[in-house]
Design a protein that fits this description.
With 223 residues, this protein is α/β, with parallel strands linked by helices. It has a single domain, classed as Rossmann fold (3-Layer(aba) Sandwich). Strands 2-3-1-4-5-6 form a six-stranded parallel sheet, sandwiched between helices. The longest helix is centred in the N-terminal third of the chain and has 22 residues.
Length: 223
Protein backbone atom coordinates (compact mmCIF):
# COMPACT_ATOMS: atom_id res chain seq x y z
CA UNK A 1 0.00 0.00 0.00
CA UNK A 2 1.43 3.37 -1.04
CA UNK A 3 1.08 6.05 1.71
CA UNK A 4 -1.59 8.72 1.08
CA UNK A 5 1.10 11.41 1.33
CA UNK A 6 2.63 10.00 -1.83
CA UNK A 7 -0.63 9.30 -3.67
CA UNK A 8 -1.79 12.92 -3.46
CA UNK A 9 -1.10 15.00 -6.56
CA UNK A 10 1.16 17.60 -5.02
CA UNK A 11 3.95 18.10 -7.51
CA UNK A 12 4.01 19.86 -10.88
CA UNK A 13 6.36 18.01 -13.22
CA UNK A 14 7.81 20.26 -15.91
CA UNK A 15 8.38 17.45 -18.42
CA UNK A 16 5.58 15.83 -20.42
CA UNK A 17 7.30 12.45 -20.92
CA UNK A 18 9.69 11.05 -18.31
CA UNK A 19 11.26 7.60 -18.51
CA UNK A 20 12.84 5.71 -15.61
CA UNK A 21 15.56 3.27 -16.63
CA UNK A 22 18.15 0.94 -15.12
CA UNK A 23 19.20 -2.70 -14.95
CA UNK A 24 17.05 -5.55 -13.70
CA UNK A 25 16.25 -5.31 -10.00
CA UNK A 26 17.12 -1.64 -9.57
CA UNK A 27 13.55 -0.51 -8.81
CA UNK A 28 12.34 1.15 -12.04
CA UNK A 29 8.69 0.16 -11.80
CA UNK A 30 8.34 1.11 -8.14
CA UNK A 31 9.84 4.57 -8.64
CA UNK A 32 7.93 5.23 -11.86
CA UNK A 33 4.68 4.37 -10.11
CA UNK A 34 5.45 6.68 -7.20
CA UNK A 35 6.39 9.51 -9.56
CA UNK A 36 3.20 9.08 -11.57
CA UNK A 37 1.00 9.18 -8.46
CA UNK A 38 2.83 12.13 -6.98
CA UNK A 39 2.54 14.20 -10.16
CA UNK A 40 -0.84 13.00 -11.42
CA UNK A 41 0.83 11.61 -14.55
CA UNK A 42 -0.24 8.57 -16.54
CA UNK A 43 1.92 5.51 -15.77
CA UNK A 44 3.18 3.39 -18.66
CA UNK A 45 4.56 0.05 -17.49
CA UNK A 46 6.75 -2.10 -19.69
CA UNK A 47 5.08 -5.27 -20.90
CA UNK A 48 7.48 -7.93 -19.63
CA UNK A 49 5.41 -10.92 -20.70
CA UNK A 50 7.65 -12.79 -23.11
CA UNK A 51 7.37 -16.55 -23.82
CA UNK A 52 11.08 -16.66 -24.69
CA UNK A 53 12.37 -15.00 -21.53
CA UNK A 54 12.70 -18.10 -19.36
CA UNK A 55 14.32 -20.18 -22.17
CA UNK A 56 16.76 -17.29 -22.65
CA UNK A 57 17.77 -17.29 -18.97
CA UNK A 58 18.12 -21.06 -19.19
CA UNK A 59 20.58 -20.60 -22.07
CA UNK A 60 18.59 -22.39 -24.77
CA UNK A 61 19.94 -22.05 -28.29
CA UNK A 62 18.22 -19.35 -30.34
CA UNK A 63 16.21 -18.03 -27.39
CA UNK A 64 18.20 -14.79 -27.16
CA UNK A 65 17.21 -13.69 -30.67
CA UNK A 66 13.59 -14.79 -30.22
CA UNK A 67 13.39 -12.96 -26.90
CA UNK A 68 14.94 -9.79 -28.33
CA UNK A 69 12.66 -9.60 -31.36
CA UNK A 70 9.57 -10.31 -29.27
CA UNK A 71 10.45 -7.45 -26.89
CA UNK A 72 11.19 -5.13 -29.80
CA UNK A 73 7.78 -5.75 -31.36
CA UNK A 74 6.02 -5.44 -27.99
CA UNK A 75 7.68 -2.10 -27.22
CA UNK A 76 6.93 -0.83 -30.70
CA UNK A 77 3.27 -1.68 -30.23
CA UNK A 78 3.15 0.09 -26.85
CA UNK A 79 4.74 3.25 -28.26
CA UNK A 80 2.55 3.25 -31.36
CA UNK A 81 -0.58 3.02 -29.23
CA UNK A 82 0.58 6.05 -27.27
CA UNK A 83 0.79 8.11 -30.44
CA UNK A 84 -2.53 6.84 -31.80
CA UNK A 85 -4.36 7.64 -28.56
CA UNK A 86 -2.69 11.05 -28.17
CA UNK A 87 -1.64 10.22 -24.62
CA UNK A 88 1.17 12.73 -24.88
CA UNK A 89 -1.44 15.45 -24.28
CA UNK A 90 -0.97 14.68 -20.59
CA UNK A 91 2.00 13.92 -18.36
CA UNK A 92 3.48 10.47 -18.86
CA UNK A 93 5.89 8.50 -16.67
CA UNK A 94 7.24 5.22 -18.06
CA UNK A 95 9.26 2.53 -16.30
CA UNK A 96 11.28 1.92 -19.47
CA UNK A 97 12.54 3.58 -22.63
CA UNK A 98 12.43 1.55 -25.87
CA UNK A 99 15.93 2.70 -26.81
CA UNK A 100 17.36 0.49 -24.06
CA UNK A 101 16.71 -2.46 -26.36
CA UNK A 102 20.10 -1.66 -27.89
CA UNK A 103 21.80 -2.63 -24.62
CA UNK A 104 20.39 -6.15 -24.70
CA UNK A 105 20.87 -6.64 -28.43
CA UNK A 106 24.60 -5.90 -28.29
CA UNK A 107 24.99 -7.99 -25.16
CA UNK A 108 23.09 -11.10 -26.22
CA UNK A 109 22.97 -11.40 -30.03
CA UNK A 110 25.47 -12.81 -32.50
CA UNK A 111 26.84 -10.57 -35.25
CA UNK A 112 24.42 -12.02 -37.82
CA UNK A 113 21.42 -11.68 -35.51
CA UNK A 114 22.46 -8.12 -34.67
CA UNK A 115 22.36 -7.10 -38.35
CA UNK A 116 18.75 -8.28 -38.65
CA UNK A 117 17.79 -6.71 -35.33
CA UNK A 118 19.30 -3.31 -36.20
CA UNK A 119 17.38 -3.13 -39.48
CA UNK A 120 14.13 -3.90 -37.68
CA UNK A 121 14.92 -1.41 -34.92
CA UNK A 122 15.61 1.36 -37.42
CA UNK A 123 12.32 0.78 -39.22
CA UNK A 124 10.17 0.46 -36.13
CA UNK A 125 11.63 2.56 -33.34
CA UNK A 126 13.53 5.49 -34.82
CA UNK A 127 10.40 7.43 -35.94
CA UNK A 128 8.67 7.14 -32.54
CA UNK A 129 8.74 9.86 -29.84
CA UNK A 130 11.59 9.85 -27.33
CA UNK A 131 11.34 10.79 -23.63
CA UNK A 132 11.84 14.43 -22.67
CA UNK A 133 14.10 13.31 -19.82
CA UNK A 134 15.50 10.00 -18.55
CA UNK A 135 16.10 9.10 -14.90
CA UNK A 136 18.77 6.39 -14.83
CA UNK A 137 18.85 4.32 -11.63
CA UNK A 138 22.23 2.87 -10.67
CA UNK A 139 23.15 0.24 -8.10
CA UNK A 140 26.04 -2.10 -7.41
CA UNK A 141 25.81 -5.61 -8.80
CA UNK A 142 25.55 -6.99 -5.26
CA UNK A 143 22.55 -4.75 -4.60
CA UNK A 144 20.89 -5.87 -7.83
CA UNK A 145 21.43 -9.55 -7.04
CA UNK A 146 19.98 -9.10 -3.56
CA UNK A 147 16.88 -7.33 -4.89
CA UNK A 148 16.33 -9.89 -7.66
CA UNK A 149 16.52 -12.69 -5.12
CA UNK A 150 14.16 -10.97 -2.67
CA UNK A 151 11.34 -10.52 -5.21
CA UNK A 152 11.50 -14.23 -6.10
CA UNK A 153 10.09 -14.17 -9.62
CA UNK A 154 9.91 -17.56 -11.30
CA UNK A 155 11.28 -16.45 -14.67
CA UNK A 156 14.28 -14.80 -12.96
CA UNK A 157 15.42 -17.87 -11.03
CA UNK A 158 17.92 -18.90 -13.73
CA UNK A 159 19.62 -15.49 -14.07
CA UNK A 160 23.32 -16.02 -13.42
CA UNK A 161 25.45 -13.70 -11.31
CA UNK A 162 27.89 -13.10 -14.20
CA UNK A 163 25.00 -12.03 -16.42
CA UNK A 164 23.79 -9.50 -13.83
CA UNK A 165 27.31 -8.10 -13.62
CA UNK A 166 27.67 -7.94 -17.40
CA UNK A 167 24.26 -6.30 -17.79
CA UNK A 168 25.03 -3.73 -15.11
CA UNK A 169 28.26 -2.79 -16.87
CA UNK A 170 26.43 -2.58 -20.22
CA UNK A 171 23.86 -0.18 -18.78
CA UNK A 172 26.60 2.02 -17.35
CA UNK A 173 28.39 2.05 -20.69
CA UNK A 174 25.21 2.89 -22.61
CA UNK A 175 24.25 5.81 -20.39
CA UNK A 176 27.82 7.07 -20.15
CA UNK A 177 27.50 7.78 -23.89
CA UNK A 178 23.80 8.78 -23.85
CA UNK A 179 23.14 12.29 -25.23
CA UNK A 180 19.63 12.23 -26.72
CA UNK A 181 17.83 13.88 -23.78
CA UNK A 182 18.64 15.35 -20.36
CA UNK A 183 19.81 12.51 -18.11
CA UNK A 184 19.58 12.32 -14.32
CA UNK A 185 21.75 9.56 -12.81
CA UNK A 186 20.54 8.36 -9.39
CA UNK A 187 22.46 6.21 -6.90
CA UNK A 188 19.86 3.84 -5.39
CA UNK A 189 22.04 1.66 -3.17
CA UNK A 190 20.88 3.22 0.10
CA UNK A 191 17.50 4.75 -0.66
CA UNK A 192 13.89 3.58 -0.48
CA UNK A 193 11.66 6.08 -2.27
CA UNK A 194 8.54 4.15 -1.31
CA UNK A 195 9.18 4.42 2.44
CA UNK A 196 10.51 7.98 2.40
CA UNK A 197 8.24 10.58 0.75
CA UNK A 198 10.88 13.24 1.41
CA UNK A 199 13.33 11.45 -0.84
CA UNK A 200 10.76 11.27 -3.63
CA UNK A 201 9.94 14.97 -3.37
CA UNK A 202 13.62 15.89 -3.40
CA UNK A 203 14.23 13.73 -6.47
CA UNK A 204 11.34 15.31 -8.37
CA UNK A 205 12.67 18.77 -7.58
CA UNK A 206 16.00 17.71 -9.03
CA UNK A 207 14.25 16.40 -12.16
CA UNK A 208 12.69 19.81 -12.70
CA UNK A 209 16.10 21.49 -12.43
CA UNK A 210 17.57 19.37 -15.24
CA UNK A 211 17.68 21.19 -18.56
CA UNK A 212 20.46 19.81 -20.77
CA UNK A 213 23.24 17.29 -20.35
CA UNK A 214 23.98 14.83 -17.53
CA UNK A 215 23.19 15.41 -13.85
CA UNK A 216 24.26 13.27 -10.90
CA UNK A 217 21.93 12.87 -7.93
CA UNK A 218 22.77 11.48 -4.51
CA UNK A 219 19.61 10.83 -2.44
CA UNK A 220 19.40 12.57 0.94
CA UNK A 221 19.70 9.28 2.82
CA UNK A 222 23.01 8.38 1.15
CA UNK A 223 24.79 11.62 2.05
Amino acid sequence: MVPEAIVARTFDLRYSYLAVEGPIGVGKTTLAGLMAKKTGARLLKEDVQNPFLEPFYEGRKGAAFQCQIFFLLTRFQQQRELVQRSLFDTRLVADFMPQKDKIFSHLNLTDGELIIYQKMYGLLMEPLPKPDIVVYLQATTETLKRRIKSRNRTYEKDISDPYVEELNQAYNYFFFHYQETPLLVVNTNEVDFERNPGELEHLLKQVNRCEKGVFLYAPLGSR
